[in-house]
Amino acid sequence: xxxxxxxxxxxxxxxxxxxxxxxxxxxxxxxxxxxxxxxxxxxxxxxxxxxxxxxxxxxxxxxxxxxxxxxxxxxxxxxxxxxxxxxxxxxxxxxxxxxxxxxxxxxxxxxxxxxxxxxxxxxxxxxxxxxxxxxxxxxxxxxxxxxxxxxxxxxxxxxxxxxxxxxxxxxxxxxxxxxxxxxxxxxxxx
Length: 190
Hints:
Elements: H1 11-33, H2 40-67, H3 75-101, H4 109-128, H5 138-163, H6 170-189
């Protein structure tokens, strides 16, 4: 009888891919749901559903991690990856909810540009997750997702500068900054 030192259960990879696919769905829904004339209330409700599905995936990963003796890679890394994927979805859902709760009208172009960056980062992440099994080809992903996060940082700074330029009344500027903060946090979580 041969002793196996590598895990047989590789379902964690599938969970990470599912979580990343949810990010793509969420980012696209957010982008489409914040267009002029879109039903933002319905979009926010769908975002909540996607966020709950992401939570379930994260809980499954954590349960599996607690029940597995030999993991495919470091336990802390598995925990961190699952948590960060969940965080991205949490922040996007929070931004959608704030737009509805604050009853915001037209959003600054910078908000939509940030969401576009999030959609690109989500797509790249979903493409990269299947590569975790072999860990080959991930360097390009890391470089690209870092570049996208830097792009989101630049847009965020421009957003804040615009919000406090006097173009918006103080209350609207604060509401829009809350939304921008959530989107920036989503970009950082990638």
